Amino acid sequence: MHPFRNPQRSLSLFRFRTTPTFLVPSNHLSTDSTTYPTTSSTTKRTPVSVPIDAGSSNRKPVNLWPGMFHSPAIYALWEARSSIFENPLLSNGLSVSKTPSLSRTTIFYNFSSDHMLREQYRNPWNHIRMGKLVEDFDALAGTVAFKHCSNEDGTARPLLLVTASVDKMVLKKPIHIDGDLTITGVVTWVGRSSMEIQLELTQSAQGNPNISNSPALVANFTFVARDSTTGKAVAINQISPESEQERLLWEEAEERNKLRKKQKEQQKHGDNEDTTRLNVLLAEGRIFSDMPALANRDSILMENTCLQNAFICQPQQRNIHGRIFGGFLMRRAFELAFSTAYAFAGVAPHFLEVDHVDFFKPVDVGNFLRLKSCVLYTELDNIAEPLVNVEVVAHVTKPECRSSEVSNRFYFTFGVDHEAVKNGLRIRHVVPATEEEARKVLERMDADNLSLVK
């Protein structure tokens, strides 16, 4: 079902009108004056951008967001945006065409020499803490989107830019905690009021033969623009690819956009075709309910894989619009999904993919948020390389109103240590017990299979 998944991939400054670069971070005693050449479509010269030092130990929050707590990378990104917010001007409502190079943004993580930064991104197994990178990815995508939608004079248009979805975040090879990282984001496709942003993470080899310079992690974010007053969709700046690579990225993004529409249509009209598949999925679940003593010992009901947590959304995690930062929600969902896969498999899993993320409703400061996770299904076609697919659903709960609404859905895929499987670890089949559960499984399987079709 997933022929492209394999063990190799399983272990896992900003100056406007130029290509911005963020240094995240250097040691606070460092006198690093590294500069990076950048290219602007509005001039023939090659300007040089000055890196932002985001790693100083005495770093203070940006004044525009007092009391907020985020990673050094997010601070650097928001500090770069702050100059735009100082003197905002209203737009005349006209959009322009901009090249991808005008929004391209890079963050640099100096893991090799900055111990303080490295510790913030280390997990208990001395690997990279993926939830933190996922959070930073969303922040970088937001900065790229904001840059693309800004006016030519560097002032902000009165737009509300929100993350609509994450179509894919694929780990292609291991990420080492002691090697410098670079994440680059760029707008690849623009519709009327939406845009797709591609982000790539690369790791510097620095003489290490085990590290190559090819992308280690690739993600595609979709952002939408809304009028900040009415909430209605607003036209945004179009995009004019210049290079052959930029045109290729545009074509790939256009294909993904068509794919999303096709998936929605199939979900609307697939009821009759799904009846047989639903019955097959539910057959074993009925045995668990009606004859549990005869149920397959290598299977487990989906409901028995569930975990959940709940928390009040605090003001320290709000974004520039006063709502809860999407990257924070992604990190919390990822960490719950990781725990769910861990409890299910019996060994620490390793991240493979963020399969998809949907942002249905905004989450506000003070909301009571409940995250519910379960193992949706497992893939055991290759017994030596089992895969665990986890769903996390976020509910905004309002006890005063006796209401609860789904704000987000997150889907993750994890792998299991190859040595553990060789030593006898067995991953069980996950069985849906209700029609609703079975439909969720079919939808994700179909979406995953369709995403492989080019």
Automatic annotation (TrEMBL):
The keyword Ribonucleoprotein does not apply. Gene3D superfamilies: Hotdog Thioesterase. Residues 29-53 are annotated as: Disordered. Residues 107-229, 303-420 form the HotDog ACOT-type domain. Keywords: Hydrolase, Repeat, Transit peptide. Residues 30-46 have a biased composition (Low complexity). One of its GO terms (biological process) is acyl-CoA metabolic process. GO terms for molecular function: fatty acyl-CoA hydrolase activity. InterPro entries: HOTDOG_ACOT (IPR033120), HotDog_dom_sf (IPR029069), Thioestr_dom (IPR006683). Belongs to the acyl coenzyme A hydrolase family. This is HotDog ACOT-type domain-containing protein. It comes from Psophocarpus tetragonolobus.
